[in-house]
Here is the input.
Amino acid sequence: MLKTALKPRWIAGLVFALLLSGVFVLLSQWQFGRSTQSDVPVDPSAEQVRPLTGVLQPGTFFPGSVSDQMVSAKGSYDPAKQVLVEGRLLAGQKGYWVVTAFAVDDAPVLHGVGASPKTWIPVARGWVADPAQASPPPSGTIELTGRLLPSEAPVPNVDAGAGRASAVSVAELINTWEVSSYPGFVAATSEVAAGKTLALPEQLKPLNIPAQPPTQQINWLNLFYSVEWVVFAGFALYIWWRMVADDHRRTLEEEEPDDEFPSDDLPAITKPEQVKP
Here is the structure.
């Protein structure tokens, strides 16, 4: 079999089969990449800063279309309404988010039982490694810029303790702070007071949360094609091996002697005219 496979024509056939299989594998990789490729890219308009009051309304559901939108708002912090959200990672280190209530100027005021005179929004101002490093927010009127994010779900059956929260859950925070709130929160990127950008305290690290890419959906048709191309690659090598095996079998058949009727054992043939009566 090996001797047959080493014939020049079958070596050339093997090279061709390997090249063809390589092309099929590349096509499989391309189809696999297409099977997990998102059809909706990140919206570049999300990086354009828009007024919070024009993007989101309090007392409504949080629409997915405004998630990750960069927004701006003018108002003030309340240092008495500040919590630490535990279990947050920064550069692989676990720590806390410092989340403070921010009263939004010119925001619509909600009415009804439990409504507050002002409308607030939780603001994640930064990250600290230790609760003792959390500092109070800047005072006075602040022009806030940050990324608008939907409310997180509260962690069930978890009591984070006084001044703590298990998640940036608007439903949980408004019960603690007893205020009316927007249905999301802002991850701050800058704070400006009296026209000057305020620097964060040394121990308070910025979050720098980027816009999240859309969830990738699996395209099952492309995934099927990627598997199909792999099968084709294997089939190309199988065809080469099969052709070599057939050639080897024919060679063996040609080399076998024809011993079915040996000449020495054939009976003598007597002509009819030689037979005596």
Remarks:
- The chain has a mean pLDDT of 85.
